[in-house]
């Protein structure tokens, strides 16, 4: 039962290299239509989202290079499209694997750390000891802050992966109980799955926003 339950997250379908990971790039097929000059509701909504994110990220990245908000907006869009596409049948959810999420979080964190310790060493050292810390607690605070800083890419990756896996497992569990139910219970099950699908769509968008905003906060600390 457990093997069948987690088989939907298996990226391999045979001896040769699986093409399931190609679903990661399906979002590129939807990108051009959103930047057409033809007015539409989707175009207007997407531009509104981009401008809202730009204004929010710009506040956090006041001392950064001009145009740096585009990196985090692109990150938000990439994760959001992959999360939403994973809700469709027979499309592999790449963001439910640490292989992808760590590839996104670890290089970002490493670049922030290298830049911060190279150009703002004094400020990076000041972050290890919060203001107002008693002298006796300073060595412990340095250890705690160092550990919390080191595990940042892992927490970013695990948070996104865990939320994607949890929703898909719940949908799979509900779907597997359908054949053993009566007609009346199947109708209730369909309504429950539709409500859960709406919830998972909201989670997909929220988790992509959380990943992008936390990456922006980490970047603002080193500037």
From TrEMBL:
Q: Does the keyword Transit peptide apply?
A: no
GO MF annotation terms: proton-transporting ATP synthase activity, rotational mechanism
One Pfam family this chain carries? ATP-synt_A
Highest taxon, organism lineage: Eukaryota
Q: Which InterPro entries match?
A: ATP_synth_F0_asu (IPR000568), ATP_synth_F0_asu_AS (IPR023011), ATP_synth_F0_asu_bact/mt (IPR045083), F0_ATP_A_sf (IPR035908)
The leader peptide range reads none
Protein localization: Membrane; Mitochondrion inner membrane
Segments crossing the lipid bilayer: 20-38, 70-92, 98-117
Principal localization reads: membrane
Q: How does it sit in the membrane?
A: Multi-pass membrane protein
Keywords attached to this Swiss-Prot or TrEMBL record, sorted alphabetically, are: ATP synthesis, CF(0), Hydrogen ion transport, Ion transport, Membrane, Mitochondrion, Transmembrane, Transmembrane helix, Transport
Cellular-component GO terms for this entry: mitochondrial inner membrane; proton-transporting ATP synthase complex
Q: Which NCBIfam families match?
A: ATP_synt_6_or_A
The entry assigns this protein to a family as follows:
Belongs to the ATPase A chain family.
Q: What does this protein do?
A: Mitochondrial membrane ATP synthase (F(1)F(0) ATP synthase or Complex V) produces ATP from ADP in the presence of a proton gradient across the membrane which is generated by electron transport complexes of the respiratory chain. F-type ATPases consist of two structural domains, F(1) - containing the extramembraneous catalytic core and F(0) - containing the membrane proton channel, linked together by a central stalk and a peripheral stalk. During catalysis, ATP synthesis in the catalytic domain of F(1) is coupled via a rotary mechanism of the central stalk subunits to proton translocation.
How it assembles, according to the record, is: F-type ATPases have 2 components, CF(1) - the catalytic core - and CF(0) - the membrane proton channel. CF(1) has five subunits: alpha(3), beta(3), gamma(1), delta(1), epsilon(1). CF(0) has three main subunits: a, b and c.
Q: What is this protein called?
A: ATP synthase subunit a
Source organism of the structure: Ocypus ophthalmicus
């Amino acid at each position: 039962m457990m093997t069948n339950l987690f088989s939907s997250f298996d990226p391999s379908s045979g001896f040769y290299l699986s093409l399931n990971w190609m679903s990661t790039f399906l979002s590129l097929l939807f990108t051009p239509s959103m930047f057409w000059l033809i007015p539409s509701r989707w175009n207007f909504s997407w531009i509104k989202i981009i401008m809202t994110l730009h204004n929010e990220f710009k506040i956090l990245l006041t001392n950064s290079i001009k145009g740096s908000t585009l990196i985090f907006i692109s990150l938000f869009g990439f994760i959001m499209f992959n999360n939403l596409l994973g809700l469709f049948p027979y499309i592999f959810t790449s963001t439910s694997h640490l292989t992808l999420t760590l590839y996104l979080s670890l290089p970002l964190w490493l670049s922030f750390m290298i830049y911060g310790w190279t150009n703002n060493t004094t400020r990076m050292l000041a972050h290890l000891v919060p203001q107002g810390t008693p002298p006796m607690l300073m060595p412990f605070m340095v250890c705690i802050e160092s550990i919390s800083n080191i595990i940042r890419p892992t927490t970013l990756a695990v948070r996104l992966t865990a939320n994607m896996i949890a929703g898909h497992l719940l949908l799979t569990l509900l779907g597997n109980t359908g054949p053993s139910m009566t007609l009346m219970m199947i109708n209730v099950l369909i309504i429950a799955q539709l409500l859960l699908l709406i919830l998972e769509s909201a989670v997909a968008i929220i988790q992509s926003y959380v990943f992008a905003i936390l990456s922006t906060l980490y970047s603002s600390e080193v500037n």
